Amino acid sequence: MNWTREVLVERFGWVDAKLEPKKEGRSNNTAYRELDAVAPRHRLNISEYLRVEQGKNVYVVSIIPQVMAWEVAHPSVLLCGSRKTMANKNTKPPYKLTEHEYPHESGHLWMTHVFEANLWMASGRTRSQLHYDKEWNVNCLLSGRKRWFFMNPFWYDKELQWARGRKFVRDDPLNNRWTDWVYLDPDHVDLIVQHKLRNMDYYELIQEAGDCIFIPYAMLHQVEKLDDGLQVAVSWMFLPETIYDEEACKDAPLDEDLPMAAMDTLYMYTGKGVIPQGYNDPLNFVHSVDEAMKRRNEKYLTLKTFRDTVTQGEAILAGAKDKKKKVKKIFDLLTAHAKDPSKGLERGELGKVPLRLWCKPAAEGD
């Protein structure tokens, strides 16, 4: 792979990408001023982005499209996440096991389920804030050089100045209530104000092109780019409930890396249309449909109930052109999986529809 600026423009210039500031500014709207001026919709295609990004505070932080994912290797050592069972976050540690919520449609029990796969691209300096994510993460650097800092929140959670507060649950980490970050400026750490940091252990790591870093869920981390050239990275996340399955691993193709595009990724992206980043877990959407049917005492899912569910508030479908036609098309796609499509899906059949099909209303109805 040789994704130079010229190659990216020639081969993938048409791909639309979401943008963020190069210097992450969570809860700081001023960080978006330059981005708002360059790309008011926080979205450009790669060709246009590479034309304007140098010297600007704009950074591709998006979903990698399938056409690019075919050229990214998924390390075989990350296979064998069970598709039969998973940790049950509704129990208490040590967690009991339960049936996997995302079974593989073709029965590949060794294929670790990927929730979301991301594309990162920028020249010049970039840096994040000190934060944790709820999911396991893998970050593979294709070009450029980065420095990472890691800190174990299980050691210091009560001493850190959390931005959101009470989101990290040390004694029940599968139920962390959200991601959170620490109030500090990574460029100017004040050890008088943040004096407790003096006695906290941390890890530092330099990532070179070709390196992949595994980031445990809930691990505090901060990352910055060290050179001025073009950096391209790919990352992906999988659920913290994922467990290793030794029996299923006997059938896994461990002798070679699969392309990222061949992995079972819940939110895939074509390169155009809705960029499905940070959207609702489709299981939550299924539950909301089920609750709506229950409230209305419906045996079969009606078009009206489905339309009301996917067009609430600021949902994409709420303001879409040809809204009725688009909603009906999605409804028909789901209803085709009913035992009797002429009647519609029963509440008990909602879970039998492949979750990849629920992704579309979960994203566009969010």
UniProtKB/TrEMBL annotation:
Record InterPro entries: Cupin_8, JmjC_dom
Source organism: Alexandrium catenella
An MF annotation (GO) of this entry: metal ion binding
Keyword Kinase: no
Gene3D superfamilies assigned: Cupin
Residue span, JmjC domain: 93-253
Protein name: JmjC domain-containing protein
Keywords, alphabetical: Iron, Metal-binding, Nucleus, Oxidoreductase
Main location: nucleus
One Pfam entry name: Cupin_8
